[in-house]
Amino acid sequence: MSNRKVNLLGRLPSLRAFEATVRCGNIAAAADELCVTEGAISKHIKTLETELGAKLFTRVSRRNLPTPAGEKLFQETRSAFALLRQAEQSFSHDLSSKPFVLAAPSTSLLRVIIPNAHLIQAVIGDRPLQFVADDTHRGIVDASYSLSLRVEELPDVPNTVFKLADEEFGLVISPLLLSPEIANPAATLTNYNCLIPKDRPHIWESWVAESSTTLAPAANTTYFDEMYLVLQGAEAGLGPTIAPRPLVTEALKNNRLWTPFGFHKRKGTYFTIAPLETDLDPDFQRVSEVLKGMFAQD
Asked: Which intervals hold domain HTH lysR-type (predicted)?
């Protein structure tokens, strides 16, 4: 940066736009969070670059990555913004009346989280607990969420991220349909309809390819609108399906399903992410720890 005197205190709106862009990963996400146009964010960043005499961002794909000068400015100002958010909280309603809003994919909510909601309630005390079905796997986290659960490759944007478990999937089937004692399950499986969610039409082929399992194509395919309907159908003996491991853990323990070939690790990760700094919600870490217990593999 230049050695000339700069006036950052006179550029607080521009600093706010800059901080949001670094934290969110790109100008579009920052504009959404601050409820302004992308043009306004770009103008604020240009104002700062002129004031500092240094380029603050470089464009890589759809992301705005901070340059060394931008990273230095972010590290030196982020604590000030964290303090401002704490001040906002101190003048807001008592935390006990503020709901903890947990967003997650609908099937994760129905199969894993809601049945164990009492464990989350135990760590947030008297706060109301709210659930939001959000099947978005990428992009900005809604600012109204206290925590969002996602399944994808771990992001490298400077948000608060907490890893829960590696992503694994495998073929599952009801023991009512196929006995665990059968000698050659691969040969028998071709006699049944495979159950597939409409939003993942190639999940069967992906599992066969990634797991290197030798399996002939199924006789027929039955499609369901939602993954949780697919899993209910599998438990009812309608056919085999490919399932993420955390979503069938309880069914496996209770012998409602079994997996002839085990589970295969994928590139993705189950993780929680916050829309702002870690201290935005003081229960983020505690709830993430509880969720880790739900999603971690035995």
From this structure: 15-67
